[in-house]
Amino acid sequence: MAMKRFVSEQIIGKLREAEVELARGSTVGQVCKKLQIAEQTYYRWRAEYGGMRVDQAKRLKELEAENARLKKLVADLSLDNAILKEAASGNF
């Protein structure tokens, strides 16, 4: 299978479609073949997006991006703080 990138809205749509097919009695393998994804991808998506609505997935992505930005900011400030402490201790 060729590697494809799906946005969260598409993933949630495919998971809903998979739930319907599984409820009809299809196996996970059959559903994955129909959706053109690997079984591992299905299980990974289900673990990450299972039970989410589209608006919740969008908010999750926004929060993850903000969290990454804040972590970088904290790392930069911690480095600046360590440099200032090192400089201040050398002056005495």
Structure description:
With 92 residues, the protein is mainly alpha-helical. Helix content is 78%, strand content 0%. The protein has 4 helices and no strands. The longest helix has 37 residues. The radius of gyration is 22 Å and the shape is elongated. The model has no long low-confidence stretch (mean pLDDT 90).
How are the SSEs placed, and which strands pair?
Blueprint: H1 8-23, H2 28-35, H3 39-49, H4 54-90
Helix pairs in contact: 1-2, 1-3
| Strand and helix order | HHHH
Task: Please state roughly what percent of the residues sit in beta strands, choosing from under 5%, 5-15%, 15-25%, 25-35%, 35-45% or over 45%.
Answer: under 5%
What quaternary form is this?
single chain
Indicate the percent of residues in helices: over 70%
Instruction: Determine the N-to-C terminus distance.
Output: 65 Å
Low-confidence runs of at least 5 consecutive residues: none
Number of domains: 2
Query: How many β-strand stretches?
Result: 0
Mean pLDDT: 90
**Alpha-beta classification:** mainly alpha
